[in-house]
Design brief:
heterodimer, A: alpha/beta, Rossmann fold, 2 domains, 5-stranded parallel β-sheet, 4-stranded parallel β-sheet, 9 strands, B: alpha/beta, Urease, subunit C, domain 1, TIM Barrel, 14 helices
């Protein structure tokens, strides 16, 4: 089953899913196919091949029913780098405000010839719901508090790039686990690839029975910092404070914010990740965000290659791909 | 003098633990005699290989008329009830306008007469407009036919209001039906809080939300001496509390739905709105506790908790869709599958949960029974007939069920109300 043992051409043949809805249920081999494809795109890019033709003649729809800057831009650019045409849709100022359902919106966009649909929605399961109404392949670009698979993949890609492999590493996910789709995608992907995952945050932001996902639970960042290889700092939303999930932003930062002192106590080669957008001074202090252990901007760069990999693999898995 | 002979069936009358093969003869709309070879009548209904029992009673049905006729009307709800074996249903008051006054209650009665299917009894609101703030006109509602009071699926957040309602309703000997869920713990919830809510990223509603309200309402029933009925309980803790309260003589009753016995929170992995119900589908251990409660008598009745919704309301984002499924037409085979086939309840015990149990909740003595002289409300079921649920064929106007395509045993063959055959399956 080791993907490295397979002949070089074989792995792509293993990817046959029409949709990418989450990292739950993907095998280590499937995850590796995506990561390897992204690495290939990154090499080609470094070699000057900035425009590829994998999706020439294909139209990719970017359906963002929830605001996003970086993910939407990244998907849009990824599609263009593969020579696709793109149709962008954003909820604000759209027909949704006129009462159209999100399913009807998606079907209308699909009717314009879209065969790959990138979907962001504030409701968990919405992209899955769309697969029952569309013929297009669906890529989940973040659904509610469920999954954000391409973010999980780009985090894993960035870690692998720095460490060579995922198996055997200890990765801490810190912050609001309860409301984080990034946390769930990281957990599924990292544990499948053999990492040990610790979720760390206030007890109010750790969802029930999460240990059944194969993770360790901690409420003390100080206790786990010395034994982690990677610390991924999830975004804290200030409005959670009003719902009594924690007493104050100040108190949150005191216990769960990454600062210079904590970096000092960490392993010398620790990697600091943050899916962003970051609140400087809350999840991490500016010196950490901009310090030499931070790989936050690498994540953004790698996100592009991960999304190119997902778009191209899904397109190739379509039964009619290459027919027109 | 018209007469009807229901011939050769297995006659089960839970009101007197009767279970024997024989004939039932109905004269002038009333049960005249049960026995062997009772001879001839004006009309004969052959019940060979079928169970003949009192008509089923559902104590809380979403009829949605007036105001939400896109979901259901009195005519379609009562047609669905008949097809499910029900001769009497109590209609939830969460209509538009809410049934919180005499005129609204009388409308429910009038619509039922026009439909001419099964008997319909209004449930009156506890609080005006279901707002939980001031009492509705309970006395006038009772006089206009309301058989109990409820704020439907809206929890009565104020313990003070609930106390006064229990005290005031005592004067009319009517129970208060409650949907026991703490509103602050269930706000924006979509499913049971546990492993699957965590994995699926869906907002959870903890079992404690139900147990807290059950505890409060039992304490208030004890304080006031009023009658409380807990609709659709779903947790182990709720069953345990009702069991203890009954042992102490507190006037509390409860029911469960078939879907809470058949499905679990794991079914939410399909992200299908037809599994979004309130209370939410729970885990296996809660399901076992509900069934144990039915077996030992803690749970008095089974209700379909019929909640019809037009497809445009259900085919939406999961956090936007309303709770509930249609259930009148699938209740019997689901109960047979879950309770009778595994040997947890006998047919007589199951029928008691659908007849004498709900009758007792409402304080009815002449319903849910085949005693000589009572109005002949009779249901004939074929316990072994296998059929496949096809929502397109529902009499209900709505199709929101997770059971489409299920093949199950147990089919309603005929329903008699007041001696008249109102529903009959014609064999192909």
């Amino acid at each position: 089953m080791s993907p490295s043992a397979s002949p070089s051409a074989a792995p792509t043949a293993l990817w046959n899913r029409p949709h990418l809805l989450g990292l739950q249920g993907l095998s280590a081999a499937e995850l590796t196919i995506i990561l390897d494809r992204a690495a290939e795109f990154k090499r080609l890019h470094a070699a000057g091949q900035t425009k590829l033709d994998h999706l020439k003649g294909v139209t990719v729809g970017n359906l963002f029913f929830e605001p996003s800057t970086r993910t939407k831009t990244s998907f849009s650019l990824a599609a263009k780098r593969l020579s696709a045409d793109t149709v962008d849709f954003t909820a604000s100022g759209s027909s949704l405000s006129k009462g159209e359902t999100f399913i009807d919106t998606a079907r209308n966009i699909e009717a314009m010839g879209v065969t790959q649909m990138v979907v962001r929605h504030s409701t968990s399961g919405a992209p899955y719901h769309l697969t029952k109404h569309l013929k297009a392949g669906v890529i989940n670009a973040g659904d509610g508090t469920h999954e954000h698979p391409t973010q999980g993949l780009l985090d894993i890609f960035t870690i692998r790039e720095h460490r060579g492999q995922i198996a055997g590493l200890t990765v801490a996910l810190v912050g609001d686990i309860l409301h984080s789709r990034v946390a769930r995608s990281n957990i599924w992907g990292l544990t499948t690839l053999g990492a040990k995952v610790i979720v760390c945050g206030p007890a109010t932001l750790i969802p029930p029975e999460i240990e059944r996902l194969g993770v360790e639970i901690s409420h003390s960042l100080d206790a786990i910092v010395p034994r982690t290889d990677v610390i991924n700092l999830l975004r804290i939303q200030a409005e959670r404070q009003r719902s009594a999930f924690f007493p104050s932003i100040y108190e949150y930062a005191h216990f769960f914010g990454m600062n210079g002192n904590r970096v000092q106590r960490a392993r010398k080669d620790v990697l600091i990740l943050a899916p962003g957008p970051i609140n400087r001074g809350v999840e991490l202090t500016p010196d950490v965000a901009d310090g030499d252990r931070s790989v936050i901007l690498d994540q953004v760069t790698n996100g592009l290659f991960i999304r190119m990999a997902c778009l191209s693999l899904l397109h190739e898995a379509r039964p009619v791909s290459g027919q027109h | 003098m018209s007469s009807l002979l229901i011939r050769g069936g297995r006659v089960i009358d839970a009101s007197r633990e009767l279970d024997r093969v024989g004939d039932v003869i109905v004269r002038d709309g009333r049960i005249a005699e049960i026995g062997s070879n009772l001879g001839q009548a004006d009309e004969v209904l052959d019940a060979t290989n079928c169970i003949v029992c009192a008509g089923f009673i559902d104590t809380h049905v979403g009829v949605r008329d007036p105001g939400f006729e896109e979901d259901e009307t009195t005519a379609t709800a009562t047609a669905a009830a008949l097809a499910g074996g029900f001769t009497r249903i109590a209609a939830l008051p969460d209509t538009l306008p809410v049934v919180d006054n005499a005129a609204a209650a009388e409308y429910v009665v009038l619509q039922a007469k026009r439909a001419g299917n099964c008997r319909v009894y209004p449930l009156g609101a506890v609080t005006r407009n279901h707002a939980g703030e001031e009492l509705a006109d309970l006395g006038q509602l009772a006089r206009s036919g309301a058989v109990a009071f409820t704020d439907s699926t809206f929890p009565i957040a104020s313990a003070e209001i609930m106390r006064r309602a229990l005290e005031y309703a005592r004067m009319f000997d009517r129970p208060i039906f409650v949907h026991p869920q703490d509103p602050t713990l269930t706000a924006s919830g979509v499913m049971h809080e546990g492993y699957y809510s965590t994995a699926l990223g869906l907002r959870g509603m903890p079992a404690a939300a139900e147990e807290i309200m059950v505890s409060r309402d039992i304490a208030l029933a004890e304080l006031t001496g009023g009658r409380i009925h807990l609709m659709s309980i779903s947790t182990q803790g709720a069953v345990e509390q009702v069991r203890r309260a009954k042992q102490r003589g507190i006037k509390v009753t409860c029911d469960v739905t078939p879907h809470h016995l058949v499905l679990t929170d794991a079914d939410m992995q399909k992200y299908d709105a037809n599994y979004k119900v309130r209370p939410p589908l729970r885990t296996e251990e809660h399901v076992r506790a509900l069934i144990d409660g039915l077996v030992d008598g803690t749970v008095d009745a089974i209700s379909a908790d019929h909640q019809p919704w037009a497809s445009e309301k259900k085919d939406r984002e999961l956090d936007q869709v309303p709770f509930g499924i249609v259930g009148l037409e699938t209740l019997l085979p689901l109960c047979a599958k879950t309770l009778v086939e595994p040997g947890r309840l006998s047919w007589l015990q199951l029928i008691s949960k659908l007849t004498t149990g709900p009758a007792r909740i409402l304080g009815w003595t002449e319903a849910g029974t085949l005693t000589t002289g009572v109005s002949a409300d009779v249901t004939v079921i074929d316990p072994t007939a296998s059929w496949t649920v096809d929502p397109a064929k529902f009499r209900s106007k709505s199709r929101n069920t997770p059971f489409g395509g299920w093949t199950m045993q147990g089919q309603v063959k005929a329903v008699v109300i007041g001696g008249e055959i109102r529903f009959r399956v014609t064999e192909v």
